[in-house]
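Appendix B, record 7
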Amino acid sequence: MKDEFYHGLDAEFYDELLDGEIDDLPFWRALLKTNSGPSLEVGCGTGRVLLPLLQEGFAIDGMDRSAKMIDLLNEKAGKLGVEVDVRIQPMEALNMGKTYPLIFIPGFSLQMVASRELLKESLHCFHAHLESGGQLAISLFFPWEELEVEGSGDWHLRKKIKRPDGSRLECHQSTQINTEDQSLVVKNRYTLLDKHRKRLGEELRDIRLLWFYPHEFHLLLEETGYHLLETYADFEYEPMDEFTPYAVFLAEKAGT
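Structure tokens (predicted):
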């Protein structure tokens, strides 16, 4: 299985890059409290969401397609003394060997699959891994701002990260939206510097995200055997509107 992204500086600095950019842990914690039994986190990455929830006593399995991210997760889990059950798998070929009352997908991971066909296969795989009446919670990103802003593709500084040894990472980012195939390419340029600001390395990573209109994704859920229960805006238990950039679709397995 090809590890297409999250295998270099983007994996090593993943937690620090997202720090302060997204505050979704309280939402997932509240959702897990409404479900019994072990849940499955799809796209668990370095354990940004998984490990704190495991520490709080929730029973959660994890999977991710990136071997590097899973290595980092296991390293963090070892330091915390937390036992984890995580697998390296692509979501479109998910095979955990059991079913769950809840599957949840933080971090917009579903939008990173290579095609709409594979995304649909992923939804079918999740369906097969849900218990009767089980729930699926999917976070989605809607690029409303990118659709409106002219000059798409311009570079800007996303974040500077400084570590205790004085080394630092600078991340510059640009986005290019395609309305024909409804995709968004996010380009990240990572520059690693030592404490004297001498360049130690540079990496360029492209991540292509599929995006959907809300009603379009609702129909896709129905086509793949789900009943939409609710949509939530910005990781709050509030209804989404036409300006919501982040949303969670909560659906129930409709068939047997």
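Remarks on this record: The mean pLDDT is 91. The helical segments are 9-12, 14-18, 25-33, 50-55, 67-80, 116-128, 144-148, 214-223.
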